[in-house]
Design a protein that fits this description.
The complex is a heterodimer. By secondary structure, chain A is an alpha/beta fold. Helix content of chain A is about 40%, strand content about 15%. Chain A has 4 domains: about 5-270, Rossmann fold; about 280-360, Ubiquitin-like (UB roll) (Roll), CATH 3.10.20.600; about 365-455, de novo design (two linked rop proteins), CATH 1.20.1440.230; about 470-524, Alpha-Beta Plaits (2-Layer Sandwich), CATH 3.30.70.20. Chain A is built from 22 helices and 15 strands. In chain A, the strands form 5 sheets. In chain A, strands 8-7-11-9-10 form a 5-stranded mixed β-sheet. In chain A, strands 5-4-3-6 form a 4-stranded parallel β-sheet, with helices on both faces. In chain A, strands 1-2 form a two-stranded antiparallel sheet. The longest helix of chain A is centred in the C-terminal third of the chain and has 18 residues, at about 385-405. By secondary structure, chain B is α+β, with helices and mostly antiparallel strands. Chain B folds into 2 domains: about 10-70; about 80-160, Glutaredoxin (3-Layer(aba) Sandwich), CATH 3.40.30. Chain B contains 7 helices and 4 strands. In chain B, a hairpin with a 2-residue loop joins strand 3 (about 135-140) and strand 4 (about 140-145). The chains are: A alpha/beta, B alpha+beta. The interface of A and B includes residues 210, 242, 283 and 326 of A.
């Protein structure tokens, strides 16, 4: 390396400050730190997102200006087991779903006496409604590369893979560019920073299969096979990719590594709750005034996130629930929004942290329909390897369809519950084991809605079309237009007389409603 | 219904063979090879599966096994304009179903199908990660945010 990191930083810092000073309204610039201005950011604590929106992701110099690659330099002067210890003591847990201790994973892989080991970055962000990984890969790709290199040094691996979704073309190009720059500068590749440590990173693109976010399925996919989860005979830290010890961490987890090495385990574990250290990025979306990515210390309440940061529910509507954890998670009703968001508390209320999707729903969202939406997703994405997931979820979806189509009766509620429990307890991988969660949690908290669908054939949110009823009201002028548009001839009435809809024959297509010139059709 | 013209694609086929040669030694090369084929030809024609098989010494059954597993690979050509309505959670609660229905109604094709003139296809898309701008529609690589049902006619008339 011609210049040291410190020399590059010195130069790049002033360049960065100069550039940011052109729009001073957007940034708080201190003598050695920069943050984003505004109330929205005030309540957040940004570690994984520390550089997002501040540095230019195409410039490795700007990353170095904000202490980039200093953690790697520091780690390379430590013993590998010391690096593992710092990460373990920090209490960092996997941000991809299960929340397994990152340090313990590293420790287990480091212990293996095998020459070839691998580090994998899981960037197959598939949970609908979560996009923090995309944001980090596009906005701060080097933080992930640095985290991977530190992990490689700690466990004794010199090869890393990033498995990234093909649906994120911008993230892919930003990673390609970042890897190229890092190799040129000597912070990646052979003999990193003259330490004698080699680490190479290769990109692999996903091909559109949600189950590939499961660690063993992801490895199968990198190996060029169908992405189906393996039987869990061995831990991946013992036998993972191509049968070699492998540490697989999610993007956000890896983005946390460098700050932990730089600032120490105690600094990190002091943030958040005792069992869930640090911060978590949430994708706050759906029916909320200020949707976006928020990074907050673990243990903040849902209420504070939705109202204080997210600005509440738009159009004066009433909040109903928040869905966390995507298709594996559950819905938490608004009356329980004092629940703290950390791994344990969310599990207690029947949801999960997952990758951090947080979809806010209001009174216009039908919870049975939402459960059906997630089930459709799981049925679609089930790999088909094990029977409970392949067939059980399909049957569960059919049951839910009975509810939304008005064909369910009271006994179906129990069937839903039983089948869900069987699928949870007997499926092979995390996808199947958690796929009934959206059903179970909505059944638990919104039992009345299921009951209404089954007994009264009524959907209070007006979402389930088959349960809607159309009626002609007193505004009708008798123009016969609805009558002409009705595809099943269920409307009767003479010219200039109020018409009548036969709800037995009505197929709820909505044509009468769409074509009425005087708003004389009531839907309820 | 759709024929693969080997003559017309001769140049692309040669480039594709060169790609396979270059990556022959790579571990787990089948997926990147299939992705290259999908990008180059817009779909995976039967003839190309045969070519991969003989060139990479992989059984066609294995290739089909892998290719059908992943939703990225299509066995019918995509239209000139590939319309994807995001069906992620955020888009769903903001009315993506209505938008998909409208496209389907206007174009007369279902999800995963292509119009006979090869102009439009409707493809399935999971979350594209733009949840704060939901609902989102992507046409080829162009992203349309805060999309409304009423925008469907307008956008199709612009594309012709």
């Amino acid at each position: 390396m011609a210049q040291t990191l410190a020399e590059i930083k010195e130069m790049a810092w002033w360049e960065l400050v100069k550039r940011l000073n052109e729009t001073p309204d957007e940034y708080n610039i201190g003598h050695d730190s920069i943050s984003l201005k505004g109330d929205y950011y005030q309540l957040q604590e940004r570690i994984a997102l520390r550089n997002i929106g501040i540095i230019n992701p195409d410039s490795i110099e700007e990353y170095i200006a904000t202490d980039g690659y200093f953690a790697l330099q520091k780690a390379l002067l430590m013993k590998p087991e010391e690096v593992v210890k710092v990460v373990k003591d920090s209490g960092l847990r996997g941000r991809g779903g299960a929340g397994f201790s990152a340090g313990r994973k590293w420790e287990s892989a480091a212990k293996q006496q095998v020459e070839q080991k691998y580090v994998i970055c899981n960037a197959d962000e598939g949970d609908p409604g979560a996009y923090m990984d995309r944001s980090i890969l596009e906005g701060d790709p080097h933080s992930v590369l640095e985290g991977m290199a530190i992990c490689g040094y700690a466990i004794g691996a010199n090869k890393g893979y990033i498995y990234v979704r093909a649906e994120y073309p911008k993230a892919v190009s930003s990673l390609i560019n970042a890897i190229d720059q890092a190799q040129k500068l000597g912070v990646l590749g052979d003999n990193i920073l003259d330490s004698g440590f080699d680490f190479h990173i290769e990109l692999r693109l996903g091909a559109g299969a949600f189950v590939c976010g499961e660690s063993t399925a992801l490895m199968e996919s990198i190996e060029g096979k169908r992405g189906m989860p393996r039987n869990k005979e061995f831990r991946t830290t013992e036998r993972g990719l191509w049968g070699k010890p492998t540490v697989i961490n999610n993007v956000e987890t890896l983005a946390n590594v460098a700050p932990i090495i730089n600032k120490g385990a105690d600094w990190f574990s002091a943030i958040g709750t005792p069992l869930s250290a640090g911060t978590k990025v949430f994708a706050l979306v759906g029916k909320v005034n200020h949707p976006g990515l928020v990074e907050v210390p673990m243990g903040m309440s849902i209420y504070d996130i939705v109202y204080k940061i997210g600005g509440g529910i738009p159009d004066g509507k009433k909040a109903k629930a928040v869905q966390t954890g995507g298709p594996s998670g559950g819905c938490i009703p608004s009356k329980m929004w004092d629940t703290k968001v950390d791994f344990e508390s969310l599990e207690e209320v029947g949801s999960i942290m997952g990758s951090g999707g947080m979809v806010v729903m209001d009174e216009k969202d039908c919870m049975v329909d939402i459960a059906k939406f997630f089930l459709e997703f799981s049925v679609d994405e089930s790999c088909g390897k094990c029977t409970p997931c392949r067939i059980g979820n399909k049957r569960l979806l059919e049951l839910l369809e009975k509810f939304t189509e008005g064909e369910a009766d009271y006994t179906d509620i129990n069937k839903l519950k039983n089948l869900s429990n069987v699928i949870c307890t007997t499926s092979l991988c995390g996808l199947g084991q958690s796929s009934p969660n959206p059903v179970l949690s909505t059944l638990n908290y919104f039992y009345d809605e299921y009951k209404e669908h089954a007994e009264d054939k009524h959907c209070r949110s007006g979402v389930c079309k088959q349960l809607l009823r159309y009626e002609v009201n007193e505004r009708c002028v008798g123009c016969t237009r609805c009558l002409q548009h009705c595809p099943v001839d269920c409307i009767t009435g003479a010219i200039r007389e109020r018409h009548y809809i036969d709800s037995e024959k009505c197929i709820r297509c909505g044509e009468c409603f769409n074509n009425c010139p005087v708003d004389a059709i009531t839907v309820y | 219904m759709f024929l693969f013209d080997q003559e017309e694609n001769r140049e692309k086929i040669e480039e594709f063979i060169a790609f396979m040669d270059k990556n022959r030694e790579m571990d787990g090369a089948l997926l990147p090879v299939l992705q290259e084929a999908q990008n180059k030809f817009g779909y995976i024609p039967e003839e190309i599966v045969e070519l991969i098989s003989s060139h990479m010494q992989i059984l066609t059954s294995t290739i089909y096994g892998v290719a059908t597993f992943y939703s990225q690979f299509s066995f019918v050509p995509r239209g000139k304009y590939s319309i994807s309505v995001c069906m992620g959670t955020a888009c769903y609660v903001k009315g993506a179903t209505d938008i998909l229905e409208e496209f389907s109604k206007v174009l007369g094709i279902g999800l995963g199908e292509t119009t006979p003139d090869r102009k439009f296809s409707i493809v399935e898309t999971r979350c594209v990660g733009l949840c704060s701008d939901a609902p989102v529609v992507m046409i080829n690589n162009q992203v349309y945010t805060h999309f409304k049902r009423a925008d469907v006619d307008h956008i199709l008339s612009i594309l012709g």
